[in-house]
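tmp note - DNA repair protein RadA
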Amino acid sequence: MSFTCTECGYSTVKWLGRCPECQAWGTLEEKGASTSKVKTKVKKSSGAKPINQIDSTLAQAKETYVPELDRVLGGGIVPGAVVLLSGEPGVGKSTLLLDVAAKAAMFGEKVLYVTGEESAGQVRLRAERINALADSLLLAAETDLGSVLGMIEAEEPDMLIVDSIQTLASSEVDGVPGGVTQVREVAAALIREAKARSLPTVLVGHITKDGTIAGPRLLEHLVDVVCTFEGEKHSRLRMLRAVKNRFGPTDDVGCFDMAENGIHSLEDPSGLFLSRSGSNPPGTCLTVTQEGKRPLLVEVQSLITESAGGQSRRSVSGVDSSRVAMMLAVLSQNIPGVQLAKSDVFAATVGGAKLSEPASDLAICLSLASAAMGRPMWTKFVGIGEISLSGEIRNVPNLGQRLNEAKRLGITHAIVAKEAMRNVPTPDNMKIKECEHIAEAVQVLLKTS
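out:
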């Protein structure tokens, strides 16, 4: 007898309350010991060829007709590649893949879309709403692996989409759908079929409560590409990232706009993170963050009020609470007259953007200083830099790319770390001020009363 973890597939001879591999509680289940002893028969094969005789054109990527998806995949999807797409429930995975399937079908490809979570009628209603109807888009509501393999053999599609891998099950394998054994067998069978037929395949994967892909970790190793689809439910912005990619980079991000009539690629998403107001109130500052290789212009807003009770509040949205707390301490220590221990502090980004990298420290700090002093800053300017505990402004990577993005969007002024522009060309008609300390930056930017 053995005990296997339903989350990661870890196996042990005795029961444990907590899995040593994935640290999940109560996930080890008893499995019967296998009594079969299978001997692999040696077969003669001539499948090995000199590498110079291998046709590399068969592995060239072809576009999916969705520009942002092609960006993340590295130019398109490779024939025979298996892509695993994961994301939180309701983020828009099915809508994105239905749009991908419809666009491929509109360009003459036969696409087989297998859904195990919804009925065919429900998918048809969504397709009507997002204008994703095409004659060569085949739809099947099926949860049996054998039936899906039979449809692949009968229809010979050019692309296969399975929504989702956890809903398919094989009648020849023990276990419930979504279990470790079933997910492993279903994935292996679909991958074998995709490689044998050079069939591009996209699998949707559920995620657990801690954000990891449900099923054994072996699933991520079997597939060629692992992508995550992210986004706040109250925001229209969705981001696609590649965690693993055998055919391209993993440092790029695709941006999508989730609207009522479907999902659309965003080639220039910076406009979603800026306020529409033409005024420049106190507590507002712009910065340029990087999502993978893509620079994004983001607006940070701060509000500081007198605390009504004895306990001051700290509320943030889109920014890291620990970094905001550190910036408040730096300001209180280095800016005369700014004491925020007894004040309520609110900091947020516009449009649901998330600032996590240290390059946004300067913008957060200047936004808080502007709100605390009640003075607006210059218009059309960005702050880019990391702030140390002593208040020193430090340089950040890819500064030239960030400044070019700001210049493209009409920004005319920028503040960076001292000597940061030594090997970086200055964009045309852009004034850049180098500051060594946060106190110097605040003195330069805030208007005098």
